[in-house]
Amino acid sequence: MYQASSYDPSDLLHPARVTSALCGLTRVVARLALAPDDQREYLRRAGAGSLADELALQLEAVVALLEPLEEADLVDPAQAALARRIDEMLDLMSGAEKAYLWEPEALSTAPEWVEVRGLAKEFLFLPDPFGGT
After folding, report:
1. Number of other CB atoms surrounding residue 81 within 10 Å
2. Which of 53, 97, 122, 132 has CA 20 to 30 A from 105's CA?
3. What whole-number distance in Å separates Cα of residue 96 and Cα of residue 121?
4. Furthest CA-CA distance within the chain
5. CA-CA distances (angstroms) from residue 66 to 14, 115, 132?
């Protein structure tokens, strides 16, 4: 899995890496917006086992890249803020006492996952900052 600390922030600002980071952010958030059955299928195909924490780990890795992109005005501030909000929501779901939230069935039953999916959909439907559709 990707390790955020392995990237030099100045290297991230290369146009190909910017594109890759922004596409990665959209892909990760799109997975969080999927219906519960589709999320479970993604986890199965990705070889992540049955634990949903892989979805959170992927977002955490991409959110770690946002700061240099924001400083260079290469990411929409509304998208960055919403991505961080989703990441914070997932963080609040962590801890031994909330381990049940990361079981596959929780994707369908836990209100926390409903909220995460709602925020992810909100992210995906933000107006395009570059004027596209």
Report:
1. 14
2. 122
3. 28
4. 44
5. 14, 22, 22
